[in-house]
Every structure is written in structure tokens, then in C-alpha cells.
Amino acid sequence: MAVTLIATEALTKRYPNGVTALSDLTVDVSPGVIGLVGANGAGKSTLIKILLGLLPPTSGRVSVLGIDPTSEPEQVRARVGYMPEHDCLPPDLSAAEFVTHMARMSGLPRTAARERASETLRHVGLYEERYRAIGGYSTGMKQRVKLAQSLVHDPDLLLLDEPTNGLDPAGRDAMLNLIDRIGSEFGISLVVCSHLLGEVERICDTLIAIDGGRLLRAANISTMTKASDVLAIEVTEGADALAARLTESGLDVRAEGRDLLVPLADDTTYDVVLAAVAALNLPLHRLDQRRHHVSDLFRDTAGEPAHVG
Amino acid sequence: MSVENQPAGVIHDIGYQRYAGARLGRGYAARSLYVHGVRTALGLGRGPKAKIFPWLAEGILLLVAAIVTAIRAQTGEAVISYTEFAAQLSFLIILFCATTAPELVSRDLRSGVLPLYFSRPLRRSDYALGKLGAMVTAVWLLQALPLTLMYLGAVFSVKGGRAVWHETVDYSKGQLSALLFGLVFGAISILIASLAGRRAVSAALIVVAFLVTSPIFGVLQVIGTGAVKQLSGIINPVSLVLITNAWLTGDQGKDFDEIAGYGIYYALSTVVLIVGCVLLLLLRYRKVAR
């Protein structure tokens, strides 16, 4: 799809107290699962509020699903679902009642609201529990209800603010799998805000990193990692000789512990490495492709302007 | 798996379905919020605990109305007029406000649910006005039922078309008074409840706001002279509504001869009070962050 999901142009937000939350942010994102990463206070929440049309930008342009949230906030909000970071559930209502009510607040007629609510709760993994009061739910179940209320009106875009907050490792995995399914099976685009890079990296195809309100980098994860994959070689002996030989062949060799790392350009890199090992007659213990952590990439290329492919 | 092996009536997971039905937008959402608010206020669609107070209050009011009707049928004398009904039982209405308004707005503040409303087509002002409308409707309904009971009882006990017509006029005045009580008490209590997230705190503040003016009013009545005495009723919501209603319906000379000539100040004060509360409420919801 060539449709633009979110586009911002020189988006800037300065609060009356002088704090600049966003500064000159320009991104152009295609539909898919988008990770929005940044430390606390980097401007993620401000960006989300601007996307929802809840906060006017100081300057710059923004469009969500092709609609300008500053001039047509209701049209944007009818097609977007939002899951906030903090607690936002009434303890004395049941999940079924609450999600039905929220569906009606999104404009769904009474019967449709009830049907969509129970269907959505089932999709997020709440069955009989949905008739019990939310006050008695575990953190994981509450997160699912929060997700369900954002999904109940079948939006075209979901904005999830720290969806794994407060969950234990198992709950975190379950939530990430659910988000992954929403993106791949349900066909809904998502923006997942997180301060944990490793988490969003698992489920996102696009990553936007902001820091201090500025864009660090926005790129497609697969292209980012492909360009910088490395080959790790472990030999039981003669590592120094191999390193010398590979350097002669024109490869940029780095030692890391017992491994030798060479940049993986294409398949011929394998041939060069194997030829060198064979020529030196060394016992090869291990040879594998190592995926760069996205965090390394951001460290390497911080500040470099980039566009999402 | 073949179809024959499956038990009958099994629910198949057909996966996620996109919603292609109607999306009714902001006006519908605001109306739904209002209806939901009225139901919440009356304890409908909620657990038995939520029904206790509204139904108890309504029960007492209906009981009083039934007794008044019975006395009238026996003796022909109206112990309480339609317009005095709410004023005589204002303590119950104040208690109803103190329990209902926090239920409608403080609860949402405390649970942090507001961002979920504001990230939908609904506007902040729609939310504030929807809740206010629900509260006003609930306070009016609380009085409308017993007034109607009294009216029906009276219509069957008086004789002649002229008497029925008089009764109908009086009943209409009573309903107008009920609506004024709804507007004044609803606006004050929703505004106060929107300031505190804890329901108990909101409830206490509402009771204090309504009751603290009573002794001041009483003192001014005793020590005040002239205009001070005549206008002292403005600070008490109950007398404010009563006299405004008397002025509106042309009854001020009849029941409140000592106020005669000052009625318009009461009416203006009522308008200023309601408009002020609504504006402050809208301002409050423009600012509220969570």
C-alpha cells in the first residue's frame, strides 16, 4: 500500500512553560506496526496527543490516515484507537459493560456495540471473566481490557502507550504476541510506544526513535539490520592467523571475545571465510550470521537524518 | 479434522471481523453519554448497592406524596402545595445530589477514564454538558413522579372542570419549580463534584455548600432590615428557587408578600448562578488533564 499512515512536517510543540516537547519532527510512515521509542520525557506522549488532535502543535504540519487532526479531530478520533499508559478503568463495572459503553462513545449503535465488545474481549483473551467487576482483575487482564476498549470500534490505527507496562515477563510476551496478531491477522496498523527498544524491535516493521523531542532515526527494521549484519566465526585455534588472512582478503575483521566478526556483505563473504579457514586448515567450531541489535544501530547512526522506506 | 467428528453447536473461531456497520458520530455519542448518566443516577443497569439511595429517596418522596394526597382526599385540605413540595423535602434532594453527582463525575476523575472519552469523537464540552444534563434530569425526575402522583390524586378528588383546570395550573407550576430545582441543584453539585476525585470528599463538599447558606439566611432574616432582609433569600438555593418560581408564575404577592418587588432580583440571580456554574464546569473540563 502506498497510503501514508502518519506524516509530520517540521512538527514542533512548545508548552507555555517554555518546555519544547517536540522539535522540527519530520516523519512519513507507511501502514504496519510502528515502534515509537524514546526515553521517558522524549516527547512520545506529546506526539500521540497531537496525532489524536488533543493538543495543537506550535508549528508544522501533521496528518493521520490522510486527515489533519488539528482541523478535523473528530474524524481522526473516530478511526483511531488509543490505549493510555496509566490506569484508566472504572473498578466497579464489568469489562463487558465498560467496553460496550466505550463502543457507543465511538458511535457504534447499541446492538453492534454489545456484539463488538464481547467479540473484542474474546480476541484479547477475556472470556467468562468479562462479566466480573474490573476491580478484581490482575494487571495482565486490565491491560487486555484497555487494549479491547481501543480496538472495539475497529479502528484503522491503534496508538498504544507502553502496553507492557507493569507486566511480568510471561504477560509481556502474551501482550507482544497479541499486538503482533493485531498487526498481521487483524490488518490494523499500530503505533507502539515504548522505552524498551528490545521489546518493540520484536514486533515492529518500522521504528521511530525520538530523543529530547528530536527525531533520532526512522527506518524500516529489516533494511536497517540487513545492511549491518555481521558474520561471527569461532575457531578452536589459530584465530590470529585467520584474522590476518581475512584482513588480507580485504575484510574488516574485529575480534570480540573468542569470535571474529566480519561484516556480511553478501553470500561471497561466506566463500571468502570458508576458503581462508580451509587454506589454514583450522578446526572451524561455529559460523553464524548475527543480527545487530537495533540499539547498536541507533548508537552508530544517531543524528543522521533518515526517512522511512 | 472432518466436520462429522465435531460436536454439534460448537462455536467456530472465524477470526477477526472488520466492522462495516454504522458509525453514528459525535451527536450520538453525546446522547448516549447523557442517557447512560441518567441511568447511572437512578441506579438502573447497575448492582443492588447502587440502587439503594436513589430508590430510597424516591420511595420516601412518593410516600409523602401519597400521604398528602390521602389527607386531601379525606379533609379537602392541601397540606403541601406542588411548589412547596421540593422545598419542604429539600434535605432529601440535597442528599440525592451529594450521592449522585460524585457518582457521575468524581468516579471518572478518580479512575482516569477521561482520556478514553477525549480520544473519541466526543468533545470535552460534550462530556461536561452530558453529565450536567443527566444530573438535572435525575433531580427533576426525583420530584416529577411524586408531583404527578399528587396531581392524579387531586384530579380524582376535586369536583368540576374549573377545579381540575386550577389543579392543572398549580401542577404545572410545581413542575416548573421541579425543573428549576433540577437546574440549580444539578449545576451546583456537578460543578463541585468535578473538583474532587474522591467521592466522599465531593459528597461532603456538596452537603456543606447547600447547608452552610441556611444559617446565614436565617440570621439575615432575623437581624436584617429592609432590602437586606428581602434579598437574603438569594444566598440559599432553596429560597432562591422558590421565590424565582413564584415570580415567574406570578404568585409572588400571594405566598411571599414581604418579598414583593424583589422577585426579579431572585430570578436574575438564578440565571447568573446557573450560567456561572455551567461556564465554570466547561472551564474545568478544558483544563482537566487526566
Give a quick summary of the entry.
The complex is a heterodimer of chains A (309) and B (290). With 309 residues, chain A is an alpha/beta fold.
Walkthrough of the structure:
- The complex is a heterodimer of chains A (309) and B (290).
- Chain A is an alpha/beta fold and 309 residues long.
- Chain A contains 11 helices and 13 strands.
- Chain A has helices at 44-51, 73-79, 95-105, 110-123, 139-151, 169-184, 197-203, 221-226, 239-248, 267-280, 294-301; strands at residues 6-14, 20-29, 33-37, 59-64, 80-83, 157-161, 189-194, 206-211, 214-220, 230-235, 254-256, 259-263, 284-290.
- In chain A, the strands form 3 sheets. Chain A has a 6-stranded mixed β-sheet with strand order 5-6-7-3-8-9, with helices on both faces. In chain A, strands 11-12-10-13 form a 4-stranded antiparallel β-sheet, covered by helices on one side.
- In chain A, a hairpin with a 5-residue loop joins strand 1 and strand 2.
- In chain A, helix 6 (169-184) runs parallel beside helix 7.
- Chain A is elongated.
- The two termini of chain A are 12 Å apart.
- The model of chain A is unreliable at 300-309 (pLDDT under 50).
- The longest helix of chain B is centred in the middle third of the chain and has 34 residues, at 124-157.
- Chain B has one domain (25-287).
- Chain B is mainly alpha-helical and 290 residues long.
- In chain B, 75% of the residues lie in helices and 0% in strands.
- The radius of gyration of chain B is 24 Å and the shape is globular.
- Chain B has 13 helices and no strands.
- Chain B: Keywords: Membrane, Transmembrane, Transmembrane helix.
- Chain B: This is ABC transporter permease.
- Chain B: The chain crosses the membrane at residues 52-73, 85-106, 127-156, 176-196, 203-223, 264-283.
